[in-house]
Amino acid sequence: MFRSLYVAATGMVAQETRLDAISNNLANANTAGFKRQDAEFEDLIYQQIRTPGRLPDGGMGPTGVQIGLGSRVVATPRYFSQGNIEQTGNPLDIAIEGKGFLSVTRPDGQFAYTRAGQLKLDSQGRLTNTSGMPVEPPINIPLDATEIIIGADGSISVTRPQQPEPVQLGQLQLVMFANPNGLKPLGHNMFEASGASGDPQVGLPTTEGRGSILQNALEGSNVAVVTEMIDMIRVQRAYEMNSKVITTADEMLRKASTLR
């Protein structure tokens, strides 16, 4: 009797975790480059009342008696499908059409990786992300640049006064990973490589599936609000069913305790 209380509790905790993932998805529905998460479950260890196989009386039991002890969240995978491309008209906004990540240098000298293409210029003219971290490789834009041109291959050119022809300053690089789900999220639209993600594979845009660069645009979140709302209803119903088990078990215990 008491077992059902604990089993139902594990189900409620698991559904709470999935609701946490859904709420984070909805909160970032308008975050550039955000990739939605989900929760994956697995069943817990089983109590072996009787194992299948040979019985004590010499017979063969085709099935046994095993009582499950609930479920738990085993992973919160992130889905790296392409988000919608939105035109912004800002020449420093870029969208990645493909699997690649931009690389930025953190204050401690380590690299971080992002899909958010909201680029800025700092006081020195360096190209940075919204947190002020310079892109890798470093690119400096002259203060007197009149136009910035970013090509599909990541090449960055500018025009300057008295210089009508664009001059190329450098080229953006994109990074791929064997297992993007192994990346460690850092917040601020950034990820960090880990042992599970594999080593970063750096290369030029438009090569080996890294994707191309689209200027004057941003990749939006790949969160589908309607889908998340449907998943929220499913989570709510699963939570209610587990709570109903606790209520039913409590009622059965109450009746058992009043027997005379």
Walkthrough of the structure:
The protein has 2 domains: 2-79 and 223-257, no CATH class; 85-219, no CATH class. Helix content is 23%, strand content 31%. It contains 2 helices and 21 strands. Strand 11 (120-121) and strand 12 (127-128) form a beta hairpin. The two termini are 19 Å apart.
Question: Which terms summarize this structure?
Answer:
2 helices, alpha+beta, two-stranded antiparallel ribbon, 23% helix
Short description:
The chain has 260 residues and is an alpha+beta fold.
Strand order of the largest sheet: 13-14-15
Are there runs of 5+ residues with pLDDT below 50, and where? none
Domains, number: 2
Measure the end-to-end span: 19 Å
Mean pLDDT: 91
Please write the string of helix (H) and strand (E) elements. Answer: HEEEEEEEEEEEEEEEEEEEEEH
Number of strands: 21
The dominant shape is elongated
Structural category is: alpha+beta
Number of helices, counting only DSSP H or I runs of 4 residues or more: 2
Helix content: 10-25%
- Main beta-sheet strand count, sense and barrel state: 3 strands, antiparallel
Query: Which percent range describes the beta-strand content?
Result: 25-35%
Radius of gyration, rounded? 27 Å
